[in-house]
Amino acid sequence: MIIEPGLNQADTPLKVGTAGRRPTRAVAVQWGGRVVQVGGNAPVVVQSMTNTDTADAIATAIQVKDLAQAGSELVRITVNTPEAAREVPAIREQLDRMNVSVPLVGDFHYNGHKLLADFPECAQALSKYRINPGNMGGGKKRGDNFAQMIEVACRYEKPVRIGVNWGSLDHELMARMMDDNSRRAQPWDAQAVMRDALVVSAISNARRAEELGLPSNAIVLSCKVSHVQDLITVYQDLSARCDYPVHLGLTEAGMGSKGIVASTAALSVLLQQGIGDTIRISLTPEPGGDRRREVIVAQEILQSMGLRAFTPMVVACPGCGRTSSTVFQELADSIQSYLRDQMPVWKNRYPGVETMNVAVMGCVVNGPGESRHADIGISLPGTGEVPSAPVYVDGKRTVTLKGDTIAQEFQAIVEQYVERRYGAGDTNNNKVGG
């Protein structure tokens, strides 16, 4: 069948954008005067986690600060030993001295009930607890340990994330559900039962927490797996069965491009459907790698999907045989790094600058057009083209740069544009796009 091209006869144009956000309860995570709302009508929150030894208070506080300055709105720290629990108040105090108000989330497994009871200062210094019900013992012990942690959360008025993980799923629950499944007329495969068990565990433990006195608006859920399609299915099911806010993350996503691509593939589908209230990109850093990369990737996913704006976006062509010079690649890289480095200062000084679009193009094929569509853009000369680089500001060609100082001159033009457009007294501060 051949479909002839023609005009769209519909009364309205095709809808662009994500589905409406899934309605959830609103959970407040706070420290002092800083309140981060998760769920409700709040934007999707970016989270990260330290990989320092929490017992090293100085190293942990420094990494928390780095992650917070990169844009992590909640930072999770491991609390796994008495030594780590003892240092949590010192970490919080150090952050407060550095004017870093990011709320801290304590990550507990196996012995969290004991650590919270033995170190009340730790329980108070944390802004939220992450509890994995699959790592709290078996039988009656599991129920008692869970109840102890919820009692502490109630005492100090702390919200809780009940985080179920397929690597540590409640074995007793899974066994019961597998037995029930065997009695079905057409039994499900084991993977399907596992997905269902994740959702059942999360919701049943949330309801148990409410029975123990934890307010319904103090609970966040997560069901993490490491396969993209499983994650999508689990969160679609979880979101259809409850109205708790949910934390998204592909657990053990991996290193480098594999981890980034897999996380983006899974989370983007869910975010497009309006599912997800907080996200974390669980990247394995290369040896000596920068932990802040997971924050940047999370921000770029949200910004690329139009859900939030964190830093000016740079549009740059991939290069081809027309662009044998590396000048445009180096300029795109330096401008992108420069814009991100400026954001800690700019976000307060220049409201709205995070929505700015910058184009750095490598030849005349798409260069002038892309530059005109950006707020500010430059079209560098390709192979065999006239050695000049026209600059476009708000869609108009303003100047042509030549010579060996194009990069420095263009950066100066960007700085002047930011000051002029987003500085104090500019009536266009709320303008989005070009």
Automatic annotation (TrEMBL):
Cofactor: binding comment: Binds 1 [4Fe-4S] cluster.
Gene3D superfamilies xrefs: Dihydropteroate synthase-like, Sulfite Reductase Hemoprotein, domain 1
Name of the top EC class for this enzyme: oxidoreductase
Entry keywords, A to Z: 4Fe-4S, Iron, Iron-sulfur, Isoprene biosynthesis, Metal-binding, Oxidoreductase
MF (Gene Ontology): 4 iron, 4 sulfur cluster binding; 4-hydroxy-3-methylbut-2-en-1-yl diphosphate synthase activity (ferredoxin); 4-hydroxy-3-methylbut-2-enyl-diphosphate synthase activity (flavodoxin); iron ion binding
Residue stretches making up the IspG TIM-barrel domain: 36-298
Residues annotated as domain IspG C-terminal: 314-415
Reactions listed under catalytic activity: (2E)-4-hydroxy-3-methylbut-2-enyl diphosphate + oxidized [flavodoxin] + H2O + 2 H(+) = 2-C-methyl-D-erythritol 2,4-cyclic diphosphate + reduced [flavodoxin]
Coiled coil stretches, renumbered: none
GO annotation, biological process: isopentenyl diphosphate biosynthetic process, methylerythritol 4-phosphate pathway; terpenoid biosynthetic process
Pfam families: GcpE (PF04551), GcpE_C (PF26540)
NCBIfam families xrefs: ispG_gcpE, PRK00366.1
Family: Belongs to the IspG family.
Stated role: Converts 2C-methyl-D-erythritol 2,4-cyclodiphosphate (ME-2,4cPP) into 1-hydroxy-2-methyl-2-(E)-butenyl 4-diphosphate.
HAMAP family: IspG
The protein's name: 4-hydroxy-3-methylbut-2-en-1-yl diphosphate synthase (flavodoxin)
Species for this entry: Pollutimonas harenae
